[in-house]
What does this fold into?
Amino acid sequence: MAANRLGARAWVRLYFRAVSRLGDGAFWYALMAALVLFDGWRGLAVSAQLAATGLVALTMYRKLKRWTRRPRPFAADGRIRAWEAPLDEFSFPSGHTLHAVSFTLVALAHYPMLAWLLVPFTASVAASRVVLGLHYPSDVLAASGIASALAALSVWAFQAML
It folds into this structure.
């Protein structure tokens, strides 16, 4: 609730809404395009790995949401305000966090010099979910754990193909 109250400040709400919108996909698509543009075939291979990881993350996220059917915080507790409309009905896990963490870990396995950009952005995406009242902290933590395992599997599979 304390994190959600931060959203009452207009500048906080605007920042986290913007981060949330970028985390819908635009940031990650731009990253994939930039990798291809600046690193050619290697960038294309990494972008393909990111896309494949994203498809697996999307499948996992949808199945877990349908299975757990956990109500969003603002729906379960009238003291929590949704500062943005949710993309779907259920809370667990945070799809934004699942994608952000998995994409970041996979990208950093290939381009560690991007940590200065990806780590703060991913942390902001994760925080946005709680501040905006769309997820519980446990949704974000669980998504981070699932994403870490998925990214490790993705990096391992990519290396095994080489």
About this structure: The chain is about 80% helix and 0% strand. Residues 10-68 form the longest helix (59 residues). The chain has a mean pLDDT of 94. The radius of gyration is 16 Å.
